[in-house]
Amino acid sequence: MTNPQNPEQQYAAPQQGAPYSGAPQYAAPQQYPGDHYGAAPQYGAPIPPVQSPKKKRKWPWVMGGIFMLLIIIAAVSGGGSDDATDDTAAAANATAANAPADVPAAANAAADVPTATAPQNDDDAAAMNSPVRDGKFEFVVTGVERGLESVGSNPYLAQKAQGQFVIVAMTVKNIGDRPQGFSPSNQKLLDSQGRSFESDTSAQIALDSDSTDVAVWDNINPGNAVQVRIVYDMPAGAAPATVELHDSMFSGGEKVSLK
Predict the structure, then answer these.
(1) CATH number of domain containing 212
(2) Within a domain: 69
(3) Looking at the domain assignment, is residue 45 inside a domain?
(4) Which of 71, 127, 208, 225 has the highest CB neighbour count under 10 A?
(5) Considering its fold, how many domains does the chain have in total?
(6) Considering the domain boundaries, does residue 124 fall inside one?
């Protein structure tokens, strides 16, 4: 029977004179390709942000289209103008060719001279003391005074004429069914040259201040008739020919001869 070995005999004592190595020696770890230990990881440059694609500009196309449209319009307008000019020139040449050669230049010059105002025609005017109607009023012209230098006896209201005062007397009757206002400014006086004159307001006030007649600006009730006198300031040499009587500012009016 074999004796078990003493565990202490498994390890021989070191030989005398041999050096003692101390700590056990280990082999250096084997390095493999691609393995780097102890070195800091290397990083590349930062990746720039992705830019959105640039939008295509449309305004150059829009401006180009507008420019072309203007060119087309100018071309069409220019063409029409040339055609119209040619037609006008042709018409002028044809007129000149057809005109008689023996027409004197004086006749053409006389055509450009403005004609004088025609004298006032009294054929369509009623005679004095004859009733005429316009709108809601019936007028009867009873008299006319010419060549007055001043009107009014009140020294504070009296008026002196620039030329001459002409007073037209008349009866005014309301033939309507409601009151109607009478205004002297609606009544026009015309002289023999066809010039029109309005009543003089200041002279009218002076004339009414010393008169017993109803004021000319009063309303006239239906069926009533009033006596009025209207005063006009005319040039000294002017001759009153007709008076144009109106119911209102926009009425047609009726003429009465003052001759």
Answers:
(1) 2.60.40.1240
(2) no
(3) no
(4) 208
(5) 1
(6) no
Q: Does residue 152 lie within any of the structural domains?
A: yes
- Domain of residue 154, residue span: 132-257
pTM above 0.85, yes or no: no
Distance CA 152, CA 159 (A): 7
- pLDDT tens digits in sequence order for the chain, 259 residues long: 455 555 444 444 445 554 555 555 555 555 555 555 555 555 555 666 656 656 666 666 777 788 788 788 876 665 544 554 555 555 555 555 555 544 444 444 444 444 444 444 556 899 999 999 999 999 999 999 999 999 988 888 899 999 999 999 999 999 999 999 999 999 999 999 999 999 999 999 888 876 645 556 779 999 999 999 999 999 998 999 999 999 999 999 999 999 8
